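@channel anyone free to eyeball this complex?
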Amino acid sequence: MSMVRSWTLGRVVSLVVLLVATAFSVFPFVWMLVGATLNPSEVLRGALRPGAEFFTNWVKATRMYNLPLFFWNSLKIAVVTVLLGLLVNGFAAYGFEKYPSKARDMVFNVLLLTLIIPQIALVIPMFRMFAFLRLLDSHAAIILPAIMSVFIIFFMRQNFKMFPSEIIEAARADGASELTIFVRIVTPSMQAAYVSSAIYIFINQWNSYLWPLITILSDAKKTMPIAISSMMSAYTIEYGALMVIVCISVLPVLILFLALQRQFVAGLLGSVK
Amino acid sequence: MKQKASYQRYLNRFGWFCVLPSVVLFGVFMLYPILSSLYYVTRRWKGMSNTFIGLGNFIRMGQDKVFLSALGNNFLFMVVQIPLMVFLALVLAVILNQGIRRFKGAFRLAIFLPAVTSLVVVSVLFRVLLQENGMLNNVLLKARLIAEPIGWLNDAAWAKVTIILAMTWRWTGYNMVFFLVGLQSIDPQIYEAAEVDGASKARQFFTITIPLLVPVILFSVVTSTSGTMQLFDEPNILTWQGGPANATMTAALYIYRQAFFVNADFGYATAMSYVVVLISGIFAFAQMRLLGDRGNK
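replying in thread with the prediction:
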């Protein structure tokens, strides 16, 4: 009897806790959408009912603030980084894992060691370097340093561990070249790991703030986070247009998450395995 | 025999070929910056020129009240926010794992959702919702929970609370997912055996669940600690350049401002970043040791 009661009480409390957590988690998203339909003073007041200003805000965001260009800049940077990052890091992870040597293991350990260095410690010498190369205020400055990722090499290496070396040996016996083995035999079976890595790199680059904030100077080169942050520092803040841009900036990551939930979480969890 | 050796050499060369692009990029964008910072750290910038001052930057740091209080803020956020978040994430994970039967997937998805937003977006949303006459204050006033508006962004103490709230909103669901994976990897037979021995649910939780989750909890503490040491986006946008009056200034934000905003003192900023690296390294090492020890038990 008491068993049954505590069981139901537990269920009710659990459900309430989850509902409260869900409300807190989801509310800012709902309000983000509402905010995009409000005028600036309603946004600041935090009006809860949708307004009629969406079209005005949209026009402001696209005409006054060049939203399509910022979106394109962010998308271009993220996609190019993903493609180059998968190529370079995947290949390196394969080399470290399937061609074991003491020297390469040492290199790998040096790479891992740098994982604890926070970005803030690297941006100053990097800024000096890019100033010297005359590459400041360019998208190359954002893409180049983000291609090689120790974390992705580590994550991919963990995945290559699971690929049986016997298959590689068998392919060698059949006379396949090392490159053919990697491209034709190993890579196709690593799709899941590549997708997770791609999501991870895309999100990191899409959301990247500190380094672009330092390097990007001109309006035409701005990415979404930089555009948002410079709108926030303007003398008068166009809150309605800002909310439109905020909504659009969340969209790609949200879509990735909803469409590829399993790989999305696997990418985040990769390091735990 | 000779042929075998040359084949091994060929494989070894191919191995280097694989890692070469990454190693070159690593050299240019990681190793070189680290090495060149050794030069910057000994110099003092004045305008475009700079002079050698040895350890002068480190001496200056010891007298820099803003930097010391910024580090203090990093520690404060660490010791308040991380336990709060880990506790909430743990409670939610346990409930999702055992407390309910239906809609598990929907709840998990909803609670994880804040993790898809960038820190810039989180900062903008919270800055708008926490205005003096903004949404949260209006709701609290209407519910008669407060008599006058709270200065979420203008009051030194409340601004710190605001940063902690925003971080907790962004990261609780994210850590909950880690804990869920940890919980699901616990063998149910352990609980069945405990059940047979007559252990209560509460006792099972503290003697089975928590100890087995320690590695995952420590992992989340390690990553959160390193994240908090680098805290930048939120104090820069949400509480506006570490305001009010440096109340939410963090080490990373202060370094950025010294190098790129207020002054262009790259030497001093580099010296401060060394301290951040050192502290992060000590924390990571200490927590890893703890993780390793527990893992062996």
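from a first look: Chain A touches chain B through 85 residues (CB under 8 Å).
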